[in-house]
Design brief:
- The chain is an alpha+beta fold and 129 residues long.
- It has one domain: RNA polymerase II/Efflux pump adaptor protein, barrel-sandwich hybrid domain (OB fold (Dihydrolipoamide Acetyltransferase, E2P), Beta Barrel).
- Helices cover 19% and strands 33% of the residues.
- The protein is built from 4 helices and 9 strands.
- The strands form 2 sheets. The protein has a 6-stranded antiparallel sheet. It has a 3-stranded antiparallel sheet with strand order 4-6-7, with no helix packed on it.
- A hairpin with a 5-residue loop joins strand 2 and strand 3.
Length: 129
């Protein structure tokens, strides 16, 4: 089952998505394409709230029956929230990767890094190669 790629998000080449929330922070998850490659997720290791990361740092791990995969910080900043639902329902990422399957929120330390992310069209081109 393939979901459309939401047009209002920003993406990384490593399959994270980013969306600005109403408070001006950034919600991060992995794309539908990524969860499809991984298969059924059985465990998610989320970052610690209060930790800071640089863009590209390993922040979290998702494990499926097939493989474990790192999740990277799409932008630099401080983790201000994690999705507690994923501890009991990691498959929310499989079912609703762009909504209930969000992973963490980050307070950006360099908002200009968002300009380096892909839009939906460029992400689609990247995953079709």
């Amino acid at each position: 089952m393939s979901h459309a790629i939401p047009q209002d998000l920003k993406y990384t080449i490593s399959h994270e998505w980013v969306k600005k929330d109403i408070e001006g922070h950034y919600v991060v998850g992995i794309t539908d394409h990524a969860q499809g490659l991984l298969g059924d997720l059985v465990f998610v290791e989320l970052p610690v709230v209060g930790n800071s990361y640089e863009k590209g740092d390993e922040v979290a791990v998702v494990e499926s029956v097939k493989a474990a995969s790192d999740v990277y910080a799409p932008i630099s900043g401080e983790i201000i929230a994690i999705n507690p639902e994923l501890a009991v329902q990691p498959d929310l990422i499989n079912k609703e990767p762009y909504t209930k399957g969000w992973m963490f929120k980050i307070k950006a330390s360099h908002e200009k890094e968002l300009n380096e992310l892909l839009d939906a069209k460029d992400y689609l081109v990247a995953i079709e190669d």
